[in-house]
Design a protein that fits this description.
The complex is a heterodimer of chains A (about 200) and B (about 70). With about 200 residues, chain A is α/β, with parallel strands linked by helices. Chain A has one domain: NAD(P)-binding Rossmann-like Domain (Rossmann fold, 3-Layer(aba) Sandwich), CATH 3.40.50.720. Chain A contains 7 helices and 7 strands. In chain A, strand 4, helix 5 and strand 5 form a beta-alpha-beta unit. The two termini of chain A are about 25 Å apart. In chain A, about 45% of the residues are buried. Chain B is mainly beta. Helix content of chain B is about 10%, strand content about 40%. Chain B has a 5-stranded mixed sheet with strand order 2-1-7-4-5, with no helix packed on it. A two-stranded antiparallel ribbon of chain B has the order 3-6. Classes of the chains: A alpha/beta (about 200), B mainly beta (about 70).
Chain lengths: ~200, ~70
């Protein structure tokens, strides 16, 4: 499939991203560069200087809401992408409203508790939607330990063990690998949905 | 019984069926933050004790750790 065909296909789709930190910001930019149609990005937080060790933000953006800063960055790269930023906490009660229009959902939170809440709620509300999570991406090295496995509509990225701690921080390369793998799997899934007339016709909008 | 657990075929010779909770105990998986899917479908935490896994089922247990 050639470059323009892939970019045209992706322009028809909406990806929802829960969290605009290390995973979410890098995944969003990779999808924007690939010409995704719409990104729905949800995060309550503002950019801090410490975030710049791995998140796709810049010093002049410190203090801005992450989703607003990310929208600016994405549209500086690719003005064709529609970014819908939501400055709010994702909760069990807000997921239906925020993510119902997405073709694919990316879980990009930091805390394991939030990951669990988000995944369980998405699977209950939208069992038919592909859902891409990342777990186990702290530290450095073991690049080939970053794996992909699938369980129904859930795609799991990461080594499934390396937890963030004071002695095992999240660093730009490994978080970036996981975020790029999430974007990569999203693209593969969207092309698959597009190529299958039945799933494309029945996709939930 | 034989099941596929996290993409690996395992034998449970002592069992003909097993609950999700007993399987997690058997594997000594006591992580609090785990998602369990049977044949691709989410099994809610409050259903673990009464959800039975049968011979030939596919079970995925996904351990969520912090980092992002």
């Amino acid at each position: 499939m050639d470059r323009e065909t892939i970019r045209t296909i992706l322009s028809h789709f909406t990806v929802g991203i829960g969290g605009a930190g290390g995973l979410g910001s890098n995944c969003a930019v990779a999808l924007a560069r690939s010409n995704i149609g719409t990104l729905i990005i949800v995060d309550f937080d503002t950019v801090s200087e410490a975030n710049l060790d791995r998140q796709y933000f810049f010093l002049p953006q410190v203090g801005q809401p992450k989703v607003a800063a990310l929208k600016d960055t994405i549209n500086t790269i690719n003005p064709n992408v529609t970014v819908q930023p939501f400055i709010e906490r994702v909760t069990r009660d807000s997921i239906a409203r925020l993510f119902a229009s997405c073709d694919i959902i990316v879980e990009a939170f930091d805390s394991a508790e939030t990951k669990l809440m988000f995944l369980e709620t998405c699977m209950q509300l939208f069992p038919e939607k592909p859902l891409i999570t990342a777990t186990g991406l702290a530290g450095y090295g073991n690049s080939t330990g970053m794996k992909v496995r699938t369980s129904g509509n859930l795609i799991i990225i990461g080594d499934e063990s390396a937890e963030v701690s004071p002695d095992n921080p999240p660093l730009a390369p490994r978080v970036g690998i996981a975020a790029a793998m999430q974007a990569n799997e999203a693209i593969a899934k969207l092309v698959e949905i597009y190529s299958n007339e039945e799933t494309y016709a029945h996709r939930i909008k | 019984m034989r099941i596929v657990l996290n993409n690996e075929t395992i034998e449970l010779p002592e069992h003909t069926e097993i609950s999700v909770k007993d399987l997690l105990d058997y594997k000594q998986w006591s992580f609090p933050l785990i998602i369990v899917k049977r044949n691709g479908n989410l099994i809610q935490r409050n259903e673990w004790a009464r959800t039975i896994i049968h011979d030939g089922d596919t079970v995925d247990a996904i351990h969520l750790v912090s980092g992002g």
